[in-house]
Every structure is written in structure tokens, then in C-alpha cells.
Amino acid sequence: MSSSFSFSDVIALKQNSKALTRDQIQWIIDSIIGKKFHDAQIGAFLMAVFLKGMTNEETIALTSIMTGSGEVLSWPEEWKHLVVDKHSTGGVGDKVSLILAPALAACGLK
Questions:
Q1: Which residue, 20, 37, 55, 71, could crosslink 24 as a Cys pair with Cβ 3.0–4.6 Å?
Q2: What is the reported pLDDT for 109?
Q3: Judgement on whether residues 63 and 87 belong to the same structural domain of the protein
Q4: What is the pLDDT of residues 10-66, one digit of tens each?
Q5: Burial letters for 17-46: b for 16+ Cβ neighbours within 10 Å, e otherwise?
Q6: Owning domain of residue 83
Q7: Is the distance from CB of 56 to CB of 23 less than 8 angstroms?
Q8: Cβ(27)–Cβ(65) under 8 Å?
Q9: Is residue 63 domain-shared with residue 86, that is, in the same domain?
Q10: CA angle 93–72–62, rounded 5-degree value
Q11: Does pTM surpass 0.70?
Q12: Residues 13 and 50 occupy one common structural domain
């Protein structure tokens, strides 16, 4: 990955409906995680993506990069049958978590 990218060049590509490379997307995500951008810059990137869209390749790269950017948790083997997760994309499913978490905990799940 190159660090020779500039925010203005990368954002201009997206604003002009050009596809970003995987390296450019990696640089954007690394810079966001590393707190190298101001909130306004992140907002400009998100607005450009919202208005101009992303190609399938960009979406796949972004998803892959974001998936690999977090901490991977490992659970003790004895918890294997006890650990559960509830996913939500926001909006519609947000309210179920409030009641689901204590209900599952009461059943001995974590």
C-alpha cells in the first residue's frame, strides 16, 4: 500500500465517478482508524460514496478491509455452545436487543 495518496486526489476521483483501487480504499480506512482525517474529511468521503456510488469491486474491497480492521475475538472452548450473537443493520432491528440480551442471559447464554 502506498502512503503517497492525498485525500484531495482520492476524494476527487470518487466525486468524478471514478472507481477507487483497493490500495486507495485501504489507505482511507487505515487513515480513518488511525485518526488521521478530520470529521469533515470523513464526511466528504461518505457523501461522495453516497452520491456517486461504488462499483462491485469497491464494495467487495471495502467490506473485506473493514472486516479485517477489527479485533478478532476468541472464546474459550467450553463457551462454544454458550456464546451467541445478534446482528443488526440498524433501524428496524435495534429495539429487539433491549429485551433479547437479558432473555438469553437468563437462559445461561453469553
A1: 20
A2: 76
A3: no
A4: 999 999 999 999 999 999 999 999 999 999 999 999 999 999 999 999 999 999 999
A5: eebbbeebbbbbbebeeeeebeeebeebbe
A6: 77-106
A7: no
A8: no
A9: no
A10: 65
A11: no
A12: yes
CB 27, CB 5: distance < 8 Å: yes
Residue 100 inside a domain? The answer is yes
Shared-domain flag, residues 34 and 85: no
Mean pLDDT (whole number) for 88-108: 75
**3-class secondary structure, 96:** helix
Which three cell numbers, joined as nine digits, stand for 105?
Answer: 442471559
Judgement on whether residues 46 and 83 belong to the same structural domain of the protein: no
Say if residue 11 is in the same domain as residue 34: yes
Q: Which region holds residue 20: left if phi is over 0, alpha if psi is between -120 and 50, else beta?
A: beta
Q: Please tell me the distance from the alpha carbon of residue 48 to that of residue 67, in angstroms, as a whole number.
A: 22
Please tell me whether residues 35 and 62 are part of one structural domain. yes
pLDDT, mean of residues 77-101: 74
Q: What pLDDT was estimated at residue 34?
A: 94
The domain tally of the chain equals 2
Q: What is the pLDDT of residue 33?
A: 93
